[in-house]
Design goal:
The chain has 10 helices and 9 strands. With about 290 residues, it is an alpha/beta fold.
Length: about 290
């Protein structure tokens, strides 16, 4: 990608499987001041950009419902936009698990665009396979399986609001029982720490409560673990910025995602924020 100046307007190409939240993301970007162009035929997009130029932030919605869509054509479009010196391209891919996509189609009773005469299951599987190469090219991957529209809005604003154009950090907690989040860069396992679950008075609390945090922090391994994580993140931040990335996501996992991982995520987020970093925090299991 060519070097971009601070004044170079961002162009966000929003894509992903049908039902993953692309339309909602486009609407949020439009509210943030992006000029939104959705579902324009691919062959017309270069002509439109050449005619109008790129002088303001732009959000382009493209997926399998576009006329003349193909993975090769969209990859070519990504290359064309990435080579422009008057814009800084980000590819935002909205993803979701197949069962969630299927449930969303069942709730709306819509026909799947890639299987209008077949079952939604066929369409979901067909589209996920079609979009594999595009997903691999994404700069930002957001798994919306467990997000509601308000959480998705917060995530989009976190990455693309004007004050968020510096490196943005996302810290989250999760339960290994439900799997590792798919859209994180660094994952730390904290299941070796003392587990508050086995303390009856702490079981119904979570890692945002002072009593739980005090219990987890009393583990002799806690301070050494936290200090090493902070050192690693601090070491990586300059390299991540130099690479040109706009975000870094960090996740802590424990057995239930209620106590230890929440405590670690809260601790790291607070430390980074006190250091002047832009940080958002999410506790996946507490939001379910």
């Amino acid at each position: 990608m060519p070097d971009a100046t601070p004044e170079t307007p961002p162009v966000v190409l929003v894509t992903g499987p049908s039902g993953a939240g692309r339309t909602s993301a486009i609407n949020v970007l439009e509210d943030l001041g992006f000029e939104a162009i959705d579902n324009l035929p691919l062959r017309l997009l270069p002509k439109l950009i050449e005619a109008a130029g790129i002088t303001e932030p732009m959000a382009l919605g493209l997926d399998s419902r576009n006329r003349d869509f193909s993975p090769a054509a969209l990859l070519d479009m990504i290359d064309v936009l990435a080579d422009r010196r008057d814009a800084k391209l980000s590819v935002l891919y909205l993803d979701a698990s197949p069962d969630v996509l299927l449930r969303r189609y069942s709730e709306t009773r819509r026909r799947h665009p890639l299987a209008p005469a077949e079952t939604p299951e066929v369409g979901v599987a067909r589209e996920l396979d079609l979009m594999t190469q595009i997903r691999e090219r994404a700069d930002i991957l957001l798994d919306t399986s467990e997000m509601n529209v308000h959480q998705l809005k917060a995530e989009i604003e976190h990455w693309f609001a004007p004050q968020g154009r510096a490196l943005a950090l996302s810290v989250q907690s999760f339960s290994y029982k439900r799997g590792v989040p798919r859209s994180v860069d660094l994952v730390f396992d904290c299941r070796f720490l003392a587990n508050p679950y086995w303390q009856e008075e702490l079981r119904t609390l979570n890692g945002r409560d002072g009593a739980v945090q005090a219990y987890v922090k009393s583990d002799p391994l806690f301070d050494g673990f936290v200090s090493r994580v902070i050192d690693m993140v601090s070491f990586l931040l300059p390299a991540v910025r130099k690479e040109g990335k706009s975000h870094l996501s960090i996740a802590f996992g424990c057995t239930g995602g209620q106590h230890r991982s929440v405590t670690l995520a809260e601790t790291l987020a607070k430390t980074l924020a006190e250091d002047g970093q832009q940080v958002s925090i999410r506790h996946r299991e507490l939001q379910s």
